[in-house]
Amino acid sequence: MNPRLVLPLFMAAGLIVAFTPLPIPPAAPQARTFEIDARQFSYSPSELKVAQGDTVILRLVSQDVVHGLYVDGYAASITADPGQSAALTFIADKAGSFRFRCNVTCGAMHPFMIGKLTVGTNDWLYRSVGLAFLAVVGAFLPFTSASSRKVK
């Protein structure tokens, strides 16, 4: 193969792997339950990941004062009293990243009590594996320049 074509072909293959829609069928929707501990001024866990179409059940447990949880983009909210829990159920039908935040003033750092809900598939994992495969294959291909060839 012409060495001048190898690099452009690998670059084209990398762009295809990075930006072509994946033909992976989505998993069947399932119920996902998360227990979120709320305390001044954080949620634990603060990042949640679900697939689009999943039924999400958030169980908010307040550890110290009254806390709330409002999910941007879904207009869903709950409030939990100290030592108590409350549950919120909704269907994650919108793909993307959404913030969830405390909607009950709980102290001076209240505006920083936020978390993140990611709805969708993990396409970047599959794309990263494809790009890594291309890099490994490319590392073993012989790259020779015109100056290194013997002239007869």
Discrete helix count: 2
Uncertain parts: none
Rg is: 24 Å
Q: Could you say which structural class the secondary elements and strand pairing correspond to?
A: alpha+beta
β content, as a range? 25-35%
Give the SSE string.
HEEEEEEEEEH
CATH topology call of the domain at 31-125: Immunoglobulin-like
Just name the CATH architecture of the domain at 31-125: Sandwich
Spatial ordering of strands, largest sheet: 3-9-8-5-6
Shape: elongated
Describe the structure.
The structure is a single chain. With 152 residues, the protein is an alpha+beta fold. Helix content is 23%, strand content 35%. It has a domain at 31-125: Immunoglobulin-like (Sandwich). The strands form 2 sheets. Strands 3-9-8-5-6 form a 5-stranded mixed β-sheet, with no helix packed on it. The chain has a 4-stranded mixed β-sheet with strand order 2-1-4-7, with no helix packed on it. β1 (31-39) and β2 (42-44) form a beta hairpin. It is elongated, with a radius of gyration of 24 Å.
Write the layout of secondary structure elements.
Layout lengths: L2 H17 L11 E9 L2 E3 L2 E4 L4 E8 L4 E5 L4 E5 L4 E7 L4 E6 L12 E6 L3 H18 L12
Parallel strand pairs: 1-4, 3-9
Antiparallel strand pairs: 1-2, 4-7, 5-6, 5-8, 8-9
Helix pairs in contact: 1-2
Q: What would a concise description of this structure say?
A:
By secondary structure, this protein is α+β, with helices and mostly antiparallel strands.
Sum up the structure in keywords:
single chain, about 150 residues, alpha+beta, five-stranded mixed beta sheet, four-stranded mixed beta sheet, 9 strands
